[in-house]
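Box S1 | Example of a co-folding query
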Amino acid sequence: MARKVRVAAAQMGPVARAHSRAEVVERLLAMLRKAHGFGAELVVYPEMALTTFFPRWVFDDPDEADAFCEAAMPNPDVQPLFDEAARLGIGFYLGYAELTEQAGRKKRFNTAILVGKDGTIVGKYRKIHLPGRKEADPTGCAGNFEKRYYEVGDLGFPVFRAFGGVMGMAICNDRRWPETYRAMSLQGAELIMLGYNTGSVRRTMVGNHQVQEPAHLSSFHNHLVMQAGAYQNCCWVVGVAKAGMEEGVEFMGGSCIIAPTGDIVAQAVTTGDEVVVADCDLDLSLHNRRTTFNFEANRQIEHYGLITERRGVIVAV
Ligand code: CDV
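Box S1 (continued) | Returned holo structure for 3-methyl-2-ureido-butyric acid
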């Protein structure tokens, strides 16, 4: 019997700095109810869904970022989402900025949690591939300063048995790195959820000139990496964006659900709050794993040369 999970990608339009958590949670609740109406069992929200994407700014005092972070999860602002999800019997992935303390030191992480249908937290992931810069960029080219505010995730790429399969999580820039998918695929991941906040255009410095990447590339690369990750690692990928003009920066959107064949089977078409669903047959992952991508039979890591295994992730030395 096929193991089908109906998954909803809940794309968000922009979140302004002035928006309260309560206002944002209302939007998340509206999409949760819509997803439930579509028969979904699992809703995937974007990266840092509760606030504006604050790492676009360089605060002189990095602790100003604390105001955008959650010190507990759930907390009174987010509890209505947990309660309604449990009442409807629907799970969710939620990205948020986390504030915590480790060995007496305050730390911030770019975090995602997976919440089960009963409203309990099944798993947590902290973003590993932090893009951007730590210090202000005198060229004005950089638009991301996550390294200034966040620690590199310290939980690895764990997978979780939930929703009748093996679930993995990643966040935004992680999707560009093949190791992200492979680390989870080697642990049997069948569905990987990832939220993202990505600008529609990208500027880089060539010598001392600012160059804008051709406009089509942002969206092309977004889907390219997720489709390749899904296909080469035999898993479903659910990529969910913030979209539209947020605090003067345009996010690309393009949220989608991708099958292990690499096909996009559902895709958002707007730049606002939008829910799209797909029936994800987890057995499709198994089929590819037993044929073309039978890792045991066909992967030849001992013949790759200059390869070592470190912390369970394959790296070149
Ligand atoms: N939030 C992100 O991780 N954004 C990056 C940008 C800065 C390149 C991304 O990979 O989409």
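The chain has a mean pLDDT of 95. Residues 126 and 153 are 4 Å apart (CA to CA).
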